[in-house]
Amino acid sequence: MAVASFRGLGRTKRAAFTGTGAYLPARRMTNADLERMVDTSDAWIVQRTGIRERRIAAPEEATSDMALHAARAALADASLRAEDLDAIVVATMLGDRLVPSTAALVQAALGAPHAAAFDVGAACTGFVYALAVGASCVKSGLFRNVLVIGSECNSRIVDWTDRNTCILFGDGAGAAVLAAADGGEGSDILDVELGCDGAKAGLITIEAGGTRLPATPDTAAGGRHLLRMNGREVFKFAVNIMCHMLVDMCRRNGIALDDIALCIPHQVNYRVIEACCERVPLPLGRFYLNIDRCGNTSAASIPIALDEAVRAGRLARGDLVCILGFGAGMTWGSALVRW
Ligand code: UT7
């Protein structure tokens, strides 16, 4: 497990959050819609997951299109021009194409000629990994302005005949601008924990389409390009790792659970968050939740929730925020942010 404390670096720049943005596709898919597609019910989905509806990208929309909407919103919020970006980091499970990166497509569409651009792949934990990379670049003085995006078009990799997975996922994108700031007590990413247990990689996987099993008509016909998951094991892993990250983050930084104004968890399943709250313990109201409206949007779920929390007035400048993510790999990542 890798635990990284930025505080150990001595005097560095702050990586300040100066803007956020989000995008959800217009089409709503309700549980009633799913009842007509697979053997499930609104009652089962609500009781087991807390999800009531999710958004689905239009046929012409791809990962970079959603990322672009969120990016423009975040830049406007930060009052920053695209030309002033030094880097664009996109967290995604599946970009528009295998090559080039989705970040490269966003860079061109955004008009950010001075920005380095690359993707980060850590599945649903991707945004936390990307934040850590972005913050490191800002704190080290390499870049001044970094745009970090999470964007997912899960509807393209979901098996719409598999009731174990298709009820969970949604599409969308979220973004945040990190800007270098000098000293002081302002907005900053104070600490991160990034981890991976690769021995559990089989719990969530897309088997075909890579170098191990390249795409063929047979792999396509067998649905082997679609997401498979051991839901029950992932559920247990999620509860354990979320609790561990939250408690350990407080311990390492010498703060009490009560000092955290808001947790922004990966929107995995209402019951995972509820179980985590009971075990830690922390009141459920201290977690920002939008899973009822968005489902699980993988790497996009944390930045979408963060942007919503900001718009809803749930965060004040100076608040301590704990970001908690986990996903395929199995990966996990948390960040302690001073808002
Ligand atoms: O970002 C990470 C991605 N991963 C996740 O988000 C997954 C985390 N895991 C979960 O959210 C939950 O494990 C699920 C929602 C996937 C499943 O909930 P569960 O409470 O763990 O149910 P289960 O898998 O233990 O299945 C219980 C029953 C089974 O029937 P039997 O064997 O008891 O007769 C399933 O076949 O529920 C059945 N079932 C369904 N029934 C109605 C599974 N999916 C459905 C469904 N509608 N959609």
How would you describe this protein?
The protein has one domain: 3-Layer(aba) Sandwich (Peroxisomal Thiolase, Chain A, domain 1). The protein contains 11 helices and 14 strands. Helices cover 32% and strands 26% of the residues. The chain is globular and about 55 Å long. A 5-stranded mixed sheet has the order 1-9-14-13-12, with helices on both faces. The protein is of the alpha+beta class and 339 residues long. The model has no long low-confidence stretch (mean pLDDT 96). A hairpin with a 3-residue loop joins β13 and β14. It binds oxa(dethia)-CoA (UT7).
Output the keywords.
single chain, 339 residues, alpha+beta, Peroxisomal Thiolase, Chain A, domain 1, five-stranded mixed beta sheet, 11 helices, 32% helix, globular, binds oxa(dethia)-CoA
What is the strand and helix layout of this fold?
Blueprint: E1 2-4, E2 14-23, E3 27-30, H1 31-35, H2 42-49, E4 53-56, H3 63-78, E5 87-91, H4 102-110, E6 116-120, H5 126-140, E7 145-153, H6 163-166, E8 171-181, E9 188-196, E10 204-206, H7 217-221, E11 227-229, H8 231-253, E12 260-265, H9 270-279, H10 291-294, H11 301-311, E13 320-327, E14 331-338
Parallel strand pairs: 5-6, 5-7, 12-13
Antiparallel strand pairs: 1-9, 2-8, 3-4, 7-8, 9-14, 10-11, 13-14
Bound molecules: oxa(dethia)-CoA (UT7).
Residues 40, 44, 48-49, 124, 163-164, 167-168, 204, 229, 231-232, 234-235, 268-269, 296, 327 line the site of oxa(dethia)-CoA (UT7).
Brief rundown of the structure:
With 339 residues, the protein is an alpha+beta fold. It has 11 helices and 14 strands. It has a single domain (1-339), classed as Thiolase/Chalcone synthase (Peroxisomal Thiolase, Chain A, domain 1).
